[in-house]
Write a structure and sequence with these properties.
This is Peptide chain release factor 3. This protein is 24% helix and 30% strand. By secondary structure, it is of the alpha+beta class.
Length: 508
Amino acid sequence: MSNRRTFAIISHPDAGKTTLTEKLLLQGGAIHLAGEVKARGAARRARSDWMKIEQQRGISVTSSVMTFQKDGIVFNLLDTPGHEDFSEDTYRTLTAVDSAIMVIDAAKGIEPQTRKLFEVCRMRSVPIITFVNKVDREGRSVFETLDEVADALALDVVPMSWPVGMGGVFQGVYDFATRTISRPEGDGREFLGKVEPLTEGAIPDDIAEEMELGEAGYPAFDLEAYRNGDLTPVYFGSALKNFGVEALIDAIARFAPPPRPQPSEQGIIDPERSDVTGFVFKVQANMDPQHRDRIAFMRLVSGTFRRGMKLIPSGLGKPIAVHSPILFFAQDREIADTAEAGDIIGIPNHGTLRVGDTLSERNDVRFTGLPNFAPEILRRVVLKDPTKTKQLRKALDDLSEEGVIQVFYPEIGSQWIVGVVGQLQLDVLVSRLEAEYKVEAMLEASPFDTARWLKGSDAAIKGFEDFNRSNLARDRDGDPVFMARSAWDVGYQQERNPDLVFSATKER
């Protein structure tokens, strides 16, 4: 178990996350051919991007799981969407990892998306390694980037490497630990394995001075502070040109924590516990359009899972036999005979398993901490063919289960409302309704601006419902939701109903 490293890569769009993912897989021997990853046809897409809309746009829309091995370590890499409008799927993926790599563009620094994802990591004290990408292009000064990470994210920073020049004067990357320089070679100015020891005159005086200042001016690396989420080691490189990729794999292997204990209603569950426990953090329908399949992604928290084992889902109460557990390499899959704490396995099922479900041998534990977030955009769904109401309901339930959307069924009126945390998810919704469910639908403006879950005693909720039925809906779990016309509306109702909590999150 201690040889498992389960981590995610988080970044702003275009920071180079997909290229880095591909190069990590290449280094780990999981793929044998790297292609530039831009939106220019199927041959040049990363292996983790499989959905039709992703193929058209060249971006990662869903989170994928990839497993590879190197030097006796099993790496479980969870790829999170890098586009501007990310979804609940992204938040939930970060509940299933033990550490993260944050990718920053050397020219742009920290962007809003990165900050948002970082906050989710912060909520769970997920340790972060920072990778400053694209140093082979013109970028900001190293000190400016380091100080921005320290200030914006309130973390101690420790440079582990240093670019020897940037852009047109880029001469390689210096490694503080080994005192060596990785040099560019050939017409492409890539890293092909040439490493030199640092000798006098090997790098320009001004950069040598900068490096000395950098080494002296920042704290030394502290493993405990990093694992507590208080410090981030910073690596500089270029994923496209192979600089810094090997150092990152090495850092994840050496520094990133093995499987961490997980919170549950029964207290903290330790990975050393002997019986099998785990939780479903993602459900993906139709990964294989030929078979209309439905895969639940389970993070194993404790025990050794064996194929054919019977596990009890908390939402069901009766055991299910897991005959065909899947280990993923994006679209490629293989049957997993065994899995350890920290591993992610896919369980094929027909709607029995839901996001937030705990699976265990004894049914005596329930994991917590998988959040739903209040949607930022609400839209009404209008069918072009009214006879397809049943198919639409099935599709909306499936897609809300995946975290693509949330769906609300108003107490009054027949038009269902979908909520998303980003605009792109609406495009994904319409595209997938048509491609996977053969349902054509339009989205109209909704009279509501946001949604809040109602929490309080049954009497308080019933009293509120009696007077506000036109503003009430149920989510797909049947829980009451207040549909608000504005933020002011939420504040006003909160004042009038002090016994109720109008919550922007719902934990599953």
